[in-house]
């Protein structure tokens, strides 16, 4: 089960009304989509993408009872141009991105996202097709490049040691599973008795970001998305770590400085204590909203 994060704050922050057109780039299991579809009513148009075909199919089924016009596309939200062109839409009234991965991907889908289980080391959002996988990175990339992504995308201070450990281990046999990788990382990181997080957390985050080019997709998606926002249209982005939030913050500030947007959130909205208590995974989320002039 995925519990939607900052649901009320993000959907209400988009100030949608009956008949509006909305683009949601990260439909996931459709939690935010339901609220959005309810707001736009039967004359509204909901356009939703997710890179993960299986999640999208579940969401489509769950949203069947809602009367608005809907178009679901299994695509990366960085391709918003092509998706809107297919929908015959030039401008949208709102855009929502709730980036990262869903609990279903973390807890159920056997693609190696979790260091708690032993699964093929893929880490792709997309459920099918080819392209870069975490397996390829850890088995084929140079030690230096592995260290760079673990440091750059995981902000892991032991990145060099971990990369060295990975390259040593793969000389023995290929690293095929998430369990194997988690064990290798554990051996490379000094034990801190008090640390609450698993030693593989940052390495797994870094690989996932690299495999899916998450930061590149975010940059491209918000820039293209902004071009497709109608005047007075709103964009809401929920991010989960500082690298993502920095991209959103800088883009929004730039648009405000150029005088083409107003910031609804000068500081990001974070989940309430009760939301964090109910859903601890929401604790690092941040929501930023802007209005196009
Ligand atoms: C946090 S979940 C969204 C959950 C959803 N808001 C809900 O309430 O059910 C993020 C989703 O975004 C998708 N995703 C992440 N990056 C993407 C991208 N660049 N393009 C398309 N989908 C992406 C993932 O596959 C995942 O299903």
Keywords:
DNA polymerase, domain 1, 13 helices, 45% helix, 293 residues, binds S-adenosylmethionine, 2 domains, 7-stranded mixed sheet, alpha/beta, Rossmann fold, 7 strands, globular
Quick structural summary:
Helix content is 45%, strand content 15%. It has helices at 7-13, 31-40, 53-62, 80-87, 103-107, 134-140, 143-154, 159-172, 178-188, 201-211, 214-227, 242-257, 273-278, and strands at 21-24, 45-50, 69-74, 92-98, 229-239, 261-263, 286-292. The structure holds S-adenosylmethionine.
List the helices and strands and how they pair.
Elements: H1 7-13, E1 21-24, H2 31-40, E2 45-50, H3 53-62, E3 69-74, H4 80-87, E4 92-98, H5 103-107, H6 134-140, H7 143-154, H8 159-172, H9 178-188, H10 201-211, H11 214-227, E5 229-239, H12 242-257, E6 261-263, H13 273-278, E7 286-292
Parallel strand pairs: 1-2, 1-4, 2-3, 4-5
Antiparallel strand pairs: 5-7, 6-7
The chain binds S-adenosylmethionine (SAM).
